[in-house]
Amino acid sequence: MNTENSQQYLIQLGERLRGVRLLKGITQKQAAKDTGMSQSFLSSVERGKKSACTAQVIALIRYYKVPYDMIFGSENGDFTLNDFPQGESPDICVELLNQLVGKARCADLIKGTGNCIKIVVYVVFRTVYRENPRNSVKLFSMSYEETLQMAKKILTAAPANIARFIRETKSINAGCFELPPERNAELRTFIHECEMMLKNVDYSSLGEDGLGFEDIITQK
């Protein structure tokens, strides 16, 4: 195998390992920890920058509980990237945010950003949950309309409140908010996908109650 083919193999192997991990909903940090690897090494393997030994690849395959052919390919039927989820999973997005916020070592900041995420998930969860008429609304103490109004107020004010909290907390050094170089690829992908969604939504079609969900879920 020449150098060019070898590099292409590493890239393909890394893409498949990353695709399976996202398919299973496992964070890179957790996968590395559970298989005895460093996160920076696993990140390099997934990006085709480093070569994992056969034992390490097999350990990952067994950990993800997928067929060997899904990673190594086979003569009968090869797997392609179309078999894996495209883009970043929500866990990866949250993982990046948590790693960035965690640099401050401030419990209040970590809790505050975590609460914002909980509210977003709660609203989406409740929206989907209520579509099944068998699900009882008695589970909730607030009406759906009240929930949307309060969530909108909180999430609209959250960015300014978080920024002000960081600036006014003397123990927080804003210069610490950096991600390690090995996360740059994931960070760029995350930013690109979010900005593409924001740019391509038809805002003229949004009413007061409409979230333009069709525009968002059809983004490629």
Notes on the structure:
The chain is mainly α and 220 residues long. The chain has two domains: 3-83, lambda repressor-like DNA-binding domains (434 Repressor (Amino-terminal Domain), Orthogonal Bundle); 104-177, no CATH class. The protein has ten helices and no strands. The protein has helices at 3-24, 28-34, 39-46, 54-64, 68-72, 90-102, 107-129, 144-168, 184-200, 213-217. The chain starts with a helix and ends with a helix. Mean pLDDT is 82; it is low at 210-220.
Structure summarized in a few sentences:
It contains ten helices and no strands.
Biggest sheet, in brief? none
CATH topology of the largest domain: 434 Repressor (Amino-terminal Domain)
* Secondary-structure content class: mainly alpha
Measured between the Cα atoms of the first and last residue, the distance is 35 Å
What percent of residues are in strands?
under 5%
Radius of gyration: 21 Å
- Indicate how many domains the architecture comprises: 2
Mean pLDDT comes to: 82
Shape: globular
What descriptors fit this protein?
single chain, 220 residues, mainly alpha, 434 Repressor (Amino-terminal Domain), 62% helix, globular, disordered C terminus
Which SSEs are present, and which pair or pack?
Elements: H1 3-24, H2 28-34, H3 39-46, H4 54-64, H5 68-72, H6 90-102, H7 107-129, H8 144-168, H9 184-200, H10 213-217
Helix pairs in contact: 1-4, 2-3, 6-7, 7-8
